[in-house]
Amino acid sequence: MSNISVKVKPLTAEAFEPYGDVIHTDGGYLEINQGTCKRFHDLASIDIDENAGRPILNIFSATPRPRPIAVKLLERHPLSSQAFFPLENKPYLVLVAAASEKIEVAALHAFLANGRQGVNYRRGVWHHPLLALDKETDFIVVDRGGDGENCNEFHFPEDINISIDY
Amino acid sequence: MSNISVKVKPLTAEAFEPYGDVIHTDGGYLEINQGTCKRFHDLASIDIDENAGRPILNIFSATPRPRPIAVKLLERHPLSSQAFFPLENKPYLVLVAAASEKIEVAALHAFLANGRQGVNYRRGVWHHPLLALDKETDFIVVDRGGDGENCNEFHFPEDINISIDY
To answer: How remote is the C-alpha of A79 from its chain's centroid?
Structure first.
């Protein structure tokens, strides 16, 4: 039995680039609506066309897990991206591994997102199901509707205990 | 000069049906992620395919206007729907008129959305630019990118003073 603890880094666009987009309002904007509104435009690469897919908008309501958070599996969406943005300014954790057939433990990376950051997982990128922290947290989610199997899971071997160091 | 005051009603899915979807979590959900997450699935009819459009995700940051709110114009998107969901649980106003070439004042309807309700304007539905209330309010916005002129404005005649009764 081996024990692995994944360290948590702050979420930045640069560090997250291999996995997708960080959705945020730190960048430039267009002024619209007679100067009453800032439009932070086109913040994520939404990729949903495969196999006649369509964009769908959802709300996910995630319950915090006991700490330390035990990592048993990751999932990926082979046909689409998947974007999340938290409501009510609540931080959360993100655990990812690059697109591949099998996940090596060394490929795991964990990030702490603040409540004003969303993430958009690129198609095929392995990611842990939502990791709310202190409270139930709701997220706006934009992903794909349509035919085809669009969720795979990877289960880690039972002789490895993986947890997130947070 | 005539003065028109538009009354504000609570936002409900039924009352808003002629204009689009109310995005909310009052309905049923799917249990996902090993029972740790509720998925409120496919909450809006996202309509962005026209003229090779693609879905885009944005954040709009809206400044409140002086009250009573003076209504000078409405806009519509002839090629797509447009969905809004407020961040940080802040209420806002919605002012709409059914899709048509010209807007009669009698066709205006105003709604108060609570901070846990979004709206998705159906293609062609006239709507006022964002109406934040007490504070600057950010919204996740899902609309369309791509070629084509996708915003028209209708300006009311200058001899009519329209305001929102709120």
So the answer is: 16
Q: Do B62 and A36 touch (CB under 8 A)?
A: yes
Q: Report residue A13 CA to chain centroid gap.
A: 13
Distance CA A75, CA A126 (A): 5
Please check whether residue B48 is in contact with residue B144, taking contact to mean a CB–CB distance below 8 angstroms: yes
The pLDDT confidence band at residue A1, using thresholds 50, 70 and 90, is confident
Report the pLDDT value the prediction gives residue A166, as an integer from 0 to 100. Answer: 93
Q: Is residue B85 within 8 Å of B43, Cβ to Cβ?
A: no
Of B60, B65, B142, the CB nearest to A57: B142
Domain ranges, ordered by start, for chain B: 2-162
Beta bridge partners, A85, equal A140
A138: which chain B residues are within 8 Å (Cβ-Cβ)? Answer: 25
Reported as a pLDDT band with limits 50, 70 and 90, residue A46 is very high
Q: Which residues of chain B have a CB within 8 Å of the CB of A58?
A: 39-43
Query: Virtual CA dihedral for B130, B132, B133, B135, nearest 10 degrees?
Result: -160
Q: What's the first-to-final CA gap in chain A, in angstroms?
A: 22
Mean pLDDT (whole number) for A35-61: 97
Whether A40 sits inside 8 A of B55 (CB atoms) is no
Fold type of domain A2-162: Jelly Rolls (2.60.120)
